[in-house]
Every structure is written in C-alpha cells, then in structure tokens.
Amino acid sequence: MKEAKLFLMTVLVCAMPLAYAGAGGDLVGDESCAGCHEELVASFDKSFHSTFFKKGDGFKCEACHGSGQVHMDSEDPTLIAGPENNMKKLEQNCLSCHANVVHGLKEKHVMEYGIGCTDCHKVHQPAYKGSLAEYEDQLCLKCHQDVKAKMYLPSHHPVKEGRMTCIDCHKFDGSEDVASEDTMPERVNETCLSCHPQYRGPFVFEHAPVAENCMICHDPHGSVANNLLKANEPFLCLQCHQMHFHTALPGYNGDFTPANHPDRGPFTSTNTASKRGFLTKCTQCHTMVHGSDLPSEARSAQGKALTR
Hints:
With 308 residues, the protein is mostly helical. It contains 14 helices and no strands. The longest helix has 20 residues, at 2-21. The chain is elongated, with a radius of gyration of 29 Å.
C-alpha cells in the first residue's frame, strides 16, 4: 500500500509541469528561476520533495509555483504563486498531491484558524522531518499555549522530555480513522490503549467510563493529580459515585458508638470522619478500576466492586 501511494505521488508531481504549461504561460525552467533565486533553487535540490523529480528534468520550481513566464517577463512577484502572494493558489498545488490531508485538517487548522501549509512546513531546506519548519512539539506548542502549560504540571506525558511528540497521538495524515475536528480518532481509547494495552478489555466486570472514553477521568496533557487524573481521589470518584463506608460518616461532638451502616460492617462515626473520608483513596480498596475478570468479595456489591 505504501509503495502504491509513493508511486502515485511520484506520477502526480512529475506530471505537474505539463499541467501548468497549458495554464498560465510557458515553462521557463529552473535555470531561469535561479537567475534571481539561486539559493532557493540550490536548497530545494537537498529537500525531501526533490526526490520525486526525475534527475535533470529542469522543471522542479514550476511544479509547485506554476508557470514562471509571465512573472519573469514582468518581474512582478504577484504573478506567480509564492509564500508572500497567491498563497491560496500555492496551497492548492500542495493539496493536488496531499489531498488526503484535507480530511484531517480542514475543520480546525484550515477552515477555522486559517492556518496554511507553509505556516508549519518548509518545502526548501533547511527543514525537519516531514518538511516541518520546526520540531513537531515545538511547532504545535507555539499555538497551543494552554497545552504547553499543562505539560509543566507534576503529572504529564513525556513530550517536553523528548520521549514522545504530539503526532504520536494527534494524526495529521488525513487517514479515514481520524476525526477531522481535532485530529484524534473517533474512539480516543484506541490511541491510549496503543501504549497502555494492559487496560484493554473486554472485562467481565467493566468500569463504564473506561469503556467509553479514557479522558473522562484523565487529562492527557497534564494534571496536578497523579497518573494524569483530572482530580485527586476521592473527589474524582465522587463525581459519579455516592459516598459510602467511612467516606459518608459524619463527624460529631460527644459520645456516639452505633454503626451508621450495620448492614455493611461495624463502621462508626468519629470526630475525624470527614478527614478520614477525604484523605482515603478509593483505589486502596477498589484496585481494579479499569476492569476485572474476577468477582469482588464484597457481598453487597454482587461481585462488581472492582476490588480484585
């Protein structure tokens, strides 16, 4: 499949000079372009895109910028597609080969924010992997400052440490399994589970938010709480679950000994009940929060308490 795509791209790029010859004037060749843009022509020969052209064909520049005849005769920079003018035309030329990218980017980056191809990519050298103007994470975080700030919180994915990049989770290739709105798959869990397969189900006893979306409980860019949790325990769990056992025991003044929940054990209210409740993690008992194939021992939970 990759070889087929590479062959198709090669055919399209090599066919471009012929396409422009009939629209916008005659082709003048790279040597004519080098008369004014010698450094750009030389740098392009070292770029990734230059590998798609036949050696010595002499029409690399006009494959993307269009016919240079009118531009060269008039010396008017507005009469050729370039980064400082006719930008939309130049980007249309990019998409003639990279049409699949539209699916992954048009909603947010292009349509909503007006970001163009050359805002992130440099066709001429020097450029980084994928003809990027900067390294992936540096490039993305220039605009996504809120995400950059989260990456300095105590719990975060190791992006700023250089052990992973934004594109490990966010795809920009326009593939069909990528949601165009935010460059994440329709099912976010598939991305998470590609690195955390130990939490992949199905389990006999499932935790509903785990099966639905990992980001219900986790903030992937960074969090103050451990393990990228959106809040510390038990506050995170109490957003969905009612308090029980010592977590629900009220504090009191004076003598009080009867159990609050005699059906669930000899648990009594104490002067420090609220402190005990809020300083106890739910996962001290419910260790299998991502799901379990084994039933729990608690009778009242009917085996579904995710305690083992």
